[in-house]
Amino acid sequence: MSAEATFWAWQQGVKSTHKLVLLSLANCHNEASGQCNPSIAYIAQATGLNRKTVITAMEQLEESSLIIRVKSSGSSNQFNLNFGQITSTKNGTSPKNGPGPKTDKTSPKNGTGPVPKTDHESKKKLKEPKNINKGLDFSSWPTEPSAEILHDWKKVRKAPLTQTAVNNIANQLHQANQHGYSVDHCLAICCERGWRGFQFQWLLNHESQAQQPLAQSIHQERTRDRSVTDMLTDTSW
């Protein structure tokens, strides 16, 4: 078995059945003698092809000058692999029969065989994740919203977010931003309250309602403290 022969066989642009036969021959290549002498029966068993298919493939490989038959009196045929031959035609015919596709592959005989493609070169490029902000211009907003917050708000809206909608709430977002509220905070409140749009006054009302329970709690605490103090300082009882 010769690594050079196997490498060369893999590079040939021939039909799959022809390549199987060629690889079987390369697997039996003797580096010392340069010959490979497997029987038709061996190749058929190794490749899983029937005898007729193997014979046809070897004849066409010979016509393509990829293999050279060496006839010897009183013995079976012997074959040499023609390392100087490179074919990239899909039908397995030799370029000598006509101009074939151009190739930048170099011959292994000069010591610089073709370099096999790496996995990442042969695989298709992975598609980049979709940008949910694609197609919308947020330059009218104080800042562009984060993808996660915008995604959540779109679910709440239950309707496509159009450029018109983006432009309509820009002024409201600027008012909120001037009072210290970020764009993401405003959209987060929209998600929490189920608002499909946004107005700064809605935010103020929401903040006021959120503070009322706290203010009432503080007022009740102070009232209770005053009652206890009054009770302790009252000398009438």
| Unreliable segments of 5+ consecutive residues | 89-109
Count of helical regions:
10
Strand order of the largest sheet: 1-3-2
The CA-CA distance between the termini, in Å, is: 115 Å
Work out the radius of gyration: 41 Å
Summarize the main sheet.
Answer: 3 strands, antiparallel
Number of strands: 3
Shape: rod-shaped
Mean pLDDT across all residues, rounded? 77
Structural account:
- 49% of the residues lie in helices and 4% in strands.
- The chain is built from 10 helices and 3 strands.
- Strand 2 (67-70) and strand 3 form a beta hairpin.
- Helix 1 packs antiparallel against helix 2, helix 2 packs across helix 3 and helix 3 crosses helix 4 (51-63).
- 16% of the residues are buried.
Task: Write out key terms for the chains shown.
single chain, 237 residues, 3 strands, 49% helix
Give the topology.
Elements: H1 3-11, H2 16-27, E1 35-36, H3 40-47, H4 51-63, E2 67-70, E3 78-81, H5 119-122, H6 147-157, H7 163-168, H8 170-178, H9 183-193, H10 200-233
Helix pairs in contact: 1-2, 2-3, 2-4, 3-4, 6-9
Summarize the structure.
With 237 residues, the chain is mainly α.
